[in-house]
């Protein structure tokens, strides 16, 4: 184990604080090489307007004060009169000639009002009831004592929307019955002749498969031979099962699965 002796100590607690990072110096400003040329051109343009007018405006003399009716007079120009009505009015009719305007019909409003009042229906008194001896009247229709809904002409009748709904349901039912009648039956019966032909065909297929099965080699040592043997056995079993079902069931019906899915 070695011992290190430190004789010079440069550490100070005031140097532990973090100092802010020093900012980098700013780059020099950009000066265009055409700067002096632009300044000279602007000065020359400004100096060109110094010859316009007096350098100092002269003050008016004391004798040139403003007098009455001495200033410039501006007269308004007369414009053409504006006519709101462009068309010419009709001439005034003579006393014996009829007026071109529409002749107003003279109406006797008194007689018209009398006719309306006579033809109008009499106003029915509002039904009320008094519940106190002082004669405090209240509305009878809003009280609930008067049978309002029973007196209506539609009370006790079937609404129109229900009758329309019943007609629609009956028409829908008739359409369903017609569609079912037009559809072909899903089940079909096999005749005896077809059944016998089907049995003969199954037995012929079984004989062919039996011959193929018997012609297989005795040693099945490869995978293709094993697969072929298993396939033939499954087909023979299925044919035997189908032959038994047809022989045991004299009546056979066929069901169309495609029509059911559709």
TrEMBL record:
Keyword Cell cycle: no
Subcellular compartments: Cell projection, Cilium; Cytoplasm, Cytoskeleton
Signal peptide span: none
InterPro entries in UniProt: Enkurin_dom, Enkurin_domain-protein
Molecular-function GO terms, alphabetical: calmodulin binding
Transmembrane segments: none
Highest taxon, organism lineage: Eukaryota
Domain Enkurin: 160-254
Statement: the UniProt record of this protein carries the keyword Ribonucleoprotein: no
Single GO cellular component term: acrosomal vesicle
Main location: other
Name of the protein described by the UniProt record: Enkurin domain-containing protein
């Amino acid at each position: 184990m070695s011992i290190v002796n430190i004789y010079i100590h440069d550490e100070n607690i005031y140097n532990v604080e973090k100092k802010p990072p020093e900012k980098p110096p700013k780059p020099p400003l950009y000066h265009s090489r055409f700067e002096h040329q632009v300044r000279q051109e602007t000065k020359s343009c400004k100096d060109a307007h110094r010859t316009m007018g007096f350098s100092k405006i002269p003050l008016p003399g004391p004798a040139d004060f403003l007098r009455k009716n001495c200033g410039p007079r501006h007269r308004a120009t007369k414009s053409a009169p504006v006519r709101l009505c462009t068309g010419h009015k009709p001439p005034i009719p003579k006393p014996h000639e009829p007026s071109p305007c529409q002749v107003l019909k003279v109406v006797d409003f008194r007689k018209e009002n009398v006719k309306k009042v006579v033809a109008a229906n009499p106003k029915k008194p509002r039904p009320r009831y008094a519940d106190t001896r002082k004669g405090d009247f209240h509305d009878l229709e809003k009280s609930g004592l008067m049978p309002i809904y029973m007196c209506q002409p539609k009370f006790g009748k079937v609404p129109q929307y229900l009758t329309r709904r019943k007609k629609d349901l009956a028409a829908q039912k008739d359409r369903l019955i017609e569609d079912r009648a037009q559809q072909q039956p899903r089940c079909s019966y096999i005749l005896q002749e077809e059944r016998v032909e089907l049995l003969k065909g199954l037995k012929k297929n079984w004989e062919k498969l039996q011959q193929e099965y018997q012609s297989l080699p005795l040693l099945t040592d490869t995978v293709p031979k094993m697969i072929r043997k298993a396939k033939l056995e499954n087909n023979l079993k299925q044919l035997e099962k189908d032959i038994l079902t047809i022989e045991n069931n004299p009546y056979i019906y066929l069901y169309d699965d495609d029509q059911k899915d559709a």
